[in-house]
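Hello forum,

I keep getting stuck at the same step: I have a sequence, I want structure tokens, and every attempt I make locally crashes halfway through. Rather than fight my setup again tonight, could one of you with a working pipeline run this one for me? It's a single chain of 363 residues.
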Amino acid sequence: MTDPATTLSALDLKRTANDIKLWGAELGFQQVVIGDVDLSAYRATFLRWLENGFHGAMGYMANNTDKRLYPERLQPGTIRVISVRMDYARQRGNSLAPMHRRNKAYIARYARGRDYHKLMRKRLQILACRITEAIGEFGYRAFVDSAPVLERAMAEKSGLGWIGKNTMLINRQAGSWFFLGELFTDIPLPIDPAGSEHCGSCRACLDICPTRAFIGNGQMDARRCISYLTIELRTAIPVKFRKAIGNRVFGCDDCQLVCPWNKFSTPSPEQDFSPRHGLDDADLVALFAWSEDEFLTRTEGSAIRRIGYECWQRNLAVALGNAETSDLVMTALQNKLSASSPLVAEHIKWALHQHRGAEGLAL
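Reply #2:
Ran it on my machine without issues. Output:
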């Protein structure tokens, strides 16, 4: 294997870095940055987050900690990380109005279209091939949420943005509606300067969180986060959070919707991220009526499928419990009760109780 460290001059490396950014743009990445693998500034914070148990049932976050904090141990030989940004929001506007449409399902913007994992990984592979054609064989590995990687830390330290008070990576020109991907490499490319923080005194994201998941600036107790509760958690959703979840059936965007920097975001040109099956304007009752086969068919190629049909029904039952009381909602819940799993049935009973209580009826 050719060793780029010994065959490329400083000028060649600078030219290669510029070429990589141009090729990345051609592949649909809105930004490409390059950083080193020193994550020492993030280690204490991450370990303290784990020690406090804020990762909840996400046991994988505590696995392979050394590889997460030392990228060169995850992919031996790695000395640089090429981080890429791909915007995903297909619409303008950042209104909280959809959360007040109680009979409609709110699905996080990132999950309404095609699953980004395969799309971005394929393009990162193409980028790696372009680099190989230009300089010869080199060591690399592509990641898109597929391994223990502190992607936001890597992106921040190489200038793609800054980690905001809501723990999201924020970009001055694009807000936070974007995906991240990485290409670990052994090429000693010149690195980009780190980003600087621009949240200032704003705390809109901290104040809007329905479940008070933020325990401080840049600190989140994931166990209280609606995205965690509706996506990562596979058991019963704690009763104390069910009312606050409202109509959010997959993820939550509230902290991004109120972020002032998202006024600078522009609609993504990526057609694959366009909403499928009307998931940007779907009735809760209609989604709840899906059979498991319909769920599997309509979520094919979608990030939603990863939670499975049972958790999908669980989430919808909670949202229906928060919907406007009507015969249609009551009938939908009652019709599913006897045929549901114990997990889903428990949430349906809770939902029915919300409406019967509103009607002054007994269970």
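The chain has 16 helices and eleven strands. If your local run keeps crashing, start a new thread with the error log.
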